[in-house]
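Ticket #422: bound-state structure for iron/sulfur cluster.
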Amino acid sequence: MIDVVQQCNLRCLYCHPGKVWLNEHLPVAVLAKTFAAIEEFGPLEVVLSGGEILMHPEFGELLDAASVIRRPGLTVITNATLVDDEVVANLRRSTVSRICVSVDGVEGSSHASARGRNLRQVMHGLRLLRESGKEMTVISVAHKGNYQEIVSLSRLLTNEGLADQHHICAPVYSGTARQHYARLRLDRDDFYTIQRAVDEARGELLQAGLFLTFNSFWPATGEIPAAQTGRTLTLQQLAEQQKDSNIHIRPSGDVRIPVLGWGRETVGGSTIGNVRRGDPAALLVEANRSLRAGGLRQLRREDEAVHKFQLRTADDTETNSLLDSEADPLDLADLIPIAPLSSHPIMRNSVCLAELQALVARFHEEPAKIRVAKHATGIIMIFQRDRSFVTLVQPAEWKKLNEWFDETATNAGKRVSRPSQS
Ligand code: SF4
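RESOLUTION: The complex was predicted; output attached.
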C-alpha cells in the first residue's frame, strides 16, 4: 500500500489517513524509483491510495511512472469526486488493473451520514470511471447510520452495471474515526446482520455479474462466512488476516511494517526507513527480511477485534492508551507469533471444483491476468491480477491442477503453456 498524497477534498468521519492533513505528497521522482524496486521485488499487488489520489499534483505522470509495474496487480483507490475526461483517459491508457471507488449508500442521506453531501458527484465519477475499461470495485463502509441499506447499493451497482465487485467493510478505530466512533460503531449483532444480508444476496448478484463480500466479518467474529466455500478470497481479506504480508509507504516516505495495527495506526513504532532518503530496493529487502525472520508478533485476533472495532466495550480508553503509548508493544499487550499461511483457516476448506474450473478457463482465455507465486511456506498462490482474488493451494493440489491445464488445453485443441511461477 502506498499513500501517495496526504490531502483530500472530503472529510469523512471514519478517515484513517487524514488524522492530520499535511498537504504532502510523494514526488514522482521518488515514486519512479520505488515502483522500479517494487517490480523487481514482485509483491502480488500494489495499492495506490491517499488521501485522495486525484489530488496528487502529478497524477498523469504518476501513472506513467507506474507503468513499470507489470508483475503485481495495480490498484487505485479514489473518492471519484474529482474525475473528469482527462483522468479517465489517463487511467484508460495506464497499466492500472483495478479502480476502487468509495460509496456508502443509495440515498444521499445514508451516503452523507459519514462522507458528506457528494453522492451525486461520486456516482457521476463512478459512471465516468466505468468507461476506463478497468475492473471496478466499490468499497462501502457500513456503519450505524447506513448498514441496514448497504446491500441495496449492491443491487443498484448490478442493475446499472457500474461495478464488478462490491466490498463492504466496518469502520476501523483509527485516525479521525477515533473522535466519531460512538456514532459509527457496529455491535456484534450488526456484523451478523450484514453478513446474513450478504449471504442472501451473494449468489443472485454473482450471476448478475457482481461479486459481493463483507471483508470485516472474519476479523470481527473469527468465523469464515458459510457462503465462503473453496480457497479463493480477496487479497484484502487475506491481508487483514495474514499479518506478515503487508508493507505500507506513507506520503512522508516512511516505510512501515504494520503487523501490530489497523487503519493507519500501529501499536509502537513500525517504521523501518524512508524512500525519500534511502534506497527503496534495500528497504523492501529489509522489510521482507523482517517479515520472514519469524520474530514478529501480533495481537490475538479476538484482542485486535475488541480494539479495532471497539467490540465488547464502548470505552475507548484502553485502545487509546495502546495506540498512543511509546512503550515496547510486548509490555502493552499479549502478543503471539504470526501463524504461517499454511495454517490459515481457509486452508481447512476443500478446493472447490467450480473455482478450479473457472481458473483453468480464465488462464486459457487471459493468461496474462493470472499470476502464480510460491509462498515461503510452500503454499501456491494463484492470483488474478485484475480482480485481486487469490486462490491458495497445496503443492500436491497444484500438481493436479497443472495436469488439468494440459488436459483441457489438449481437449480444446489449444497450445497453451502451463502457468509458470513468477
Ligand atoms: S476516507 Fe478517503 S475520501 Fe474520505 S476524507 Fe479520508 S481520504 Fe478523503
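RESOLUTION NOTES: The chain is about 40% helix and 20% strand.
TICKET STATUS: resolved
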